[in-house]
């Protein structure tokens, strides 16, 4: 791909940027971001993924890239090359930056410093030509989200929730703050909604009834923009094994793409 | 109960303080804190609960106290009375503080301000005599955790995780930071480990194999200090209905208490 010459044009070749967000932790935001990026790549797009969850980067774990390290871009300018996943997605994560074990990334990152570090993941990476740049935001709308919005024009967000009322409260609040930043919602993902028993095939909803339609209405998203991802042993196994992107994408992530 | 006269002795009657923490969001920290507090109360203790997750307070939701509002303590001094749950636990949460709907609690709280607000939940509440004060910390070790440790002597922490490798990375890091604050770990809770099919009784582990023994070893906790909480429809239903503390506690929370 063509090389940028410095931070001011690192993002010049990026056509569109999509954030994956949620004001509630543990709903599956990193999972949706990594699987969505690989579904977009499987459909032929040139895709990047920024793991902006600087306090707890998880892209290296789900992509089986824990040992990867960042290398300098051949074009210089202080830029680094993104790490390429086996599924063909270019990834930037604080997890790839070699820090001494006792001061793991995110240990000391609070407030505005975390926002500046996240912005650097965008500007200091030599992305080249990309159709999509998918951004996995940390939970909440804090300093990192503000730093990201200052670094790049985020066209739209995919908001992830679970069926629980505990998630509903946080996610609806997050929507207000996100709209205040001028980022429209393109899709709503209700994750971990239904579990299918591997023994007898019975379905049950361990985490409650759901509020995806309410969330979509609040975000101005049409019903076709709501995607439901079941509790899937295949998704969990791919995450645990660091094998996201190795097999064909789950159908729901292809339709989300 | 006996009344404090001002912020400097609001905590005078509190015998011991236990934090419930995790560096990974969505593992069930608020669930464990609320159920543990009510198990301690069911055994006859005088118990308080501080919902220090100022960005996303959930105690009012799981306790069915969304409409409760804080009242001033009859003894004055600017202190507020805690809200009493039906299960007999005294609760302080930002969710009880009446703010205009569009500026929900936590919307503007970032960095050191969040730490100061959390500290106020301790000092501005007239706790009276308590055997235990259970604190639900926000995910991570940030400004709020520092604010809490500055406001009260936290004797020990209960660290919550799930079987997933994604949680393992964050929770082990959190342990290092917590030990740096001088807070020992009293117990490890592995939550959402096993799902039992309501149809045929088959067990499966949707979120991976587990690392509770490794976490306990890293935290210096004996094997008896590890508690496993299954994916429990009763726990989820109590959370969703705001009915935590109305029925007898689940056995695992009694043994944790
Ligand atoms: N659809 C799914 N099916 C099964 N497990 C899932 C699914 N989505 C997420 N998980 C698991 O749930 C946990 C939380 O997901 P994660 O992506 O880390 O959430 P977040 O980024 O919102 O904190 C992880 O252990 C992940 O493997
Ligand atoms: N043991 C359990 N069985 C069933 N559902 C649970 C259990 N523990 C937590 N949950 C559900 O999981 C979700 C996350 O729990 P929560 O306590 O909000 O986590 P955290 O405080 O770590 O963000 C909630 O919807 C809650 O009802
Ligand atoms: Zn079954």
TrEMBL record, chains A, B:
Keyword Cell division: no
Keywords in alphabetical order: ATP-binding, Iron, Iron-sulfur, Metal-binding, Nucleotide-binding
Domain of life: Eukaryota
Keyword Cell membrane: no
Family listed: Belongs to the Mrp/NBP35 ATP-binding proteins family.
Name by which UniProt lists this protein: Cytosolic Fe-S cluster assembly factor
Organism, scientific name: Aureococcus anophagefferens
Taxonomic lineage of the native organism: Eukaryota, Sar, Stramenopiles, Ochrophyta, Pelagophyceae
Interval of the full protein contained in this chain: 112 to 368 of 468
């Amino acid at each position: 791909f063509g090389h940028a010459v410095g931070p001011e044009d690192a993002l010049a070749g990026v056509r569109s940027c999509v954030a994956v967000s949620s004001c509630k932790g543990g709903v599956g935001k990193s999972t949706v971001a990594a699987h969505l990026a690989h579904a977009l790549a499987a459909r032929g797009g040139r895709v990047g993924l920024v793991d902006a969850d600087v306090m707890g980067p998880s892209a290296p774990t789900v992509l089986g890239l824990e040992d990867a390290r960042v290398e300098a871009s051949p074009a210089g300018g202080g830029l680094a090359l993104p790490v390429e996943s086996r599924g063909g997605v270019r990834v930037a994560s604080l997890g790839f930056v070699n820090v001494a074990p006792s001061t793991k990334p995110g240990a000391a990152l609070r407030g505005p410093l975390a926002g500046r570090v996240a912005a650097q993941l965008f500007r200091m990476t030599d992305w080249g030509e990309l159709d999509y740049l998918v951004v996995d935001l940390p939970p909440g709308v804090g300093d990192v989200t503000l730093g990201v919005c200052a670094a790049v024009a985020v066209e739209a967000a995919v908001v992830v929730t679970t069926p629980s009322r505990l998630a509903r409260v946080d996610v609806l609040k997050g929507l207000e703050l996100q709209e205040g930043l001028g980022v429209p919602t393109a899709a709503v993902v209700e994750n971990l909604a239904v579990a299918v028993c591997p023994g007898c095939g019975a379905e049950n909803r361990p985490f409650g009834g759901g509020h995806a339609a309410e969330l979509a209405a609040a975000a101005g998203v049409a019903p076709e923009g709501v995607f439901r991802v079941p509790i899937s042993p295949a998704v969990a196994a791919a995450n645990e094994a660091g094998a996201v992107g190795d097999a064909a994408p789950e159908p729901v992530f292809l339709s989300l793409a």
